[in-house]
Records
---
Amino acid sequence: MRSLNDIADEYEFLEGDERYRLLIELGRELEPMPDALKTDATLVRGCSAAVWVYPTGDTAALHFLADSNAAITKGIVALVIAAVQDRPASEIATLDVTAALEPFDLKNQLSSNRTQGVPNMIALVKEHATRIAAG
């Protein structure tokens, strides 16, 4: 998976439909999430599309599997995951993911339907990290 900084550098030079295409491409690059993990327990509430997030790894390097049933939403999921992937759980628990995503200006680039679940997804990722960091 590309780093969030690398993605932001590319995103900055794109406009309109090209940004949508990049988000779709990022979604396709997500590590596959087994269907067995797509359960009610891993479902992110409040998203217009179905989004699932599942933590793996340990306190030293928390790794997330994630997926969505909508292409652009899956790209947004990929951005959130890129911000936190393989970092220590304690770091993710305190990371300002919203600030990390500011270069993408998602609220102005996408419809509110596509971004309404982003805070819930960030909250879920941080909850997982806090729980795992606490042991």
---
Amino acid sequence: MSFPESFDWLPQAPLQRLELDWLTRAGVEVAVLRLDLIDPLISGNKWFKLTEHLAAARSLGAQGVISLGGAHSNHLHALAAAGRRFAFPTVGLLRGHPQDTPTVLDLQAFGMHLHWLGYAGYRERHAPGFWAPWQAQYPELYPVPEGGGGLAGAAGCMTLRDQVQRQLPSLGWNDYHAWWLAAGTGTTLAGLVLAEAGARPVYGALAVPEDHGVTQQVESILQQAGQGHGGYQLLDSSRGGFARVDDALRGFIQLTEQQCALPLEPLYTGKALMALQEQVMAGRFAPGYRLVFVHTGGLQGRRALLAQA
């Protein structure tokens, strides 16, 4: 077993200008932070959300990690891949009943031990005492919240601001006005709010229904960090439900990829960019407005989700 000793080696994600006709017509400029390109398996924002959790596990002498997610979970996929790469054991607590999605097959290939909780059992994940039986069964493992959440996960994402700042000259930008990204647990968004400390707003396109408690999770993180309210806004882009994929979304992803070759997946990045298009076309941002769109990765999940009827 060998947790990484440091994360100084984490690669720089490219910052690329996004060229799309609806942006050009509105005079709005968008640059994409391509977190999907930093690693073939542990891609997107997942590495950043895991860094502080793995550092804590190492400092406490844990032997491995246990966490939660669904049958298409990008978080569990990245965690299992990290466990395989650095030779530490991983255990996944999964939503629903056993099924062989491409993600689940990868988890098993990476050596993650899986427990299926059903749907009612998974809904109890925020209840007091949820972790007690699992920590009794796996006392040597460090528990990581769903999606790598919490203040530790957010703290790991604060460095994304530095990645953008270093690359602004390459775009001919001297500044930007705001961030735009998908929000599943709100952890990455909270990290950016902490990093900006009120300097720029962070817009989160909610990929999950409001009853998933993203607002409460973001507020909890900011409160723990001693930062006041505000600095962000959440917009509903769930399209009616968790993991809901409709024809309009599929068509938007296909057209976008044809126009600019930016790969998207339908759960997070596709919904987030589609929500941005709606806001831009509604005139929310004045000509000359500059946004940084965070590509949070998750492309492994598109294998099954885009094929859903």
---
Amino acid sequence: MPSYEERSIIGKQIVITGATNGIGKEIARAMARRGADLTIVARTESKARATVAELSAEPGAAGRLDYVLADLADLSSVRTAAARIVASTPKIDILFDNAGVHSFEGGTTRDGYELMAATNHLGPFLLTHLLLDPLIAAAPSRIVVTASEAHRAAARLRPEDFAEPLRHSAIGSQPIYGRSKLLNILFTEELAHRLAGTGVTVNSFCPGVVASGLIRGSRVISAAARTFSHTPLIRTPEQGAQMGIRLALDAGLTGTTGRFYTSTPGLRFLPAVPARRDDALRTSMFDRSAELVGLH
């Protein structure tokens, strides 16, 4: 990756989801090493505690590190976590919407939504909106969304049923996962449009194929991914985190918004998928998502 001029984030307030493993932990590590104040949003308290202790011991970690518990698949949990963050953090300089899941077995959330649509899109959608006031207060600030080139294999996207529960096989999970990643990109583009003039930028990226603990429902495949991470076929979490780190630190990206950056060689030359060229679809998906999570 080309070198770039880093802006200072000493004392800056950063919120990141999915930081207890994988690329999220490596992004959090990079932020901690540069002296940022860091709030981790995590599902499991024991992992959150261990991660905060680990990152606090990193060289240069002079900032305040803490955690808030939330399950992004549970909208009530997201609201509680957001309220706690806002109460203690009047300004947020960078929000990383990083957490995600690829479920081979599928599932339905307590709110009645398809598991990957809820975890990868609706939960982050709600969290981001509930944190907009402190993000705007900290402007110029940045939102960084972890998406994926898997969006190119997305299932059909329709506002009326994209979050409806459904059953699928392990093979059938790929287009459903891809759809949730397409939603990440459309969300990035539409939110950037709606936040124009606020000083808050929104960009998304693909980390490449990473052995990150993303997959649920298959210990065998997760173990295989860890094995292949020692080969050029699959990236390590540290490698996969680099683009997300850059989107937070690159001084040259100040003011850049609504972009999708890929870490997969060659794919940046491919044209955008049709859904990304459909402004009406992008707007309707945004509005439908707001309706589903109870925003008005």
---
Amino acid sequence: MTTSPTGRLARVLVLAGAVAALAFGATPAATAAPAPAPTIAAVDFHGIVALSNCSGAVVRTPSAASTDPALVMSNGHCVALMAAGEVRQNRQDTRRFTLLNSSGTGSLGTLQANRLLYATMTNTDVSIFRLTITYGQLQSQFGTTALTLSTAHPTAGQSIRVVSGFHRAIYPCNIDTFAFRLREDRWTWLDSIRYTSACHTIPGTSGSPVLDTNTSQVVGVNNTLNEQGQRCTLDNPCEVTQNGAVSIHQNIGYAQETYYIAPCFTTQSRLDLTRPGCQLPR
């Protein structure tokens, strides 16, 4: 995995904060206006955040309203090294995020979460935090908007950019193909995005959004790289085909698809894993 530059995934546990379960407090707004959508013409650092050990982005569903609490997406392993099959949901969390300006040369300020809505390393590797501000307040207080989650499955050959808030770097490449199963240590991820070799991501890029160059929408979340050419070990994912054949691709990076995340959210950024189209594990 590609976490902090001073260590690999195993050091994430030290940086993760304590969490405690609480109930949702927000109520839906009946006549909420749509949240402003990004209008950037090219991929930049718009909506990108840096965590203490990873990268991430402020994201919105296509139907999000300006009064909905804003969301930040990163990797599950940026929260903790969770057990296979473990899902964390609706827990108090006050993690802070540095919001970058569009050029990546400076910070617009600090965002703060009040809840970890979801995190897992099973089937995918994703974490979603709820912020203390709405999408409308993001616009009025920081002069920026969130990145939109695409609801379409990405395609092979698609031009993409992996945008790291931690390193303030953009990695341009294409989607090479999709791994039926991607296995690393005790975790297995489904239908993972494999990059072409140009996207040689490094530690600290974990949680970076993968953006479609044409639309600037989020199609994935960067999470790992085969670093030493080993087979199915920590920091050395391997691909497993439907018939069980195993292959490794040293120095090649991977991301987890995000097209099925938007259907999991209702009004006021409430998470409902039972909604049609939501494929996040429960």
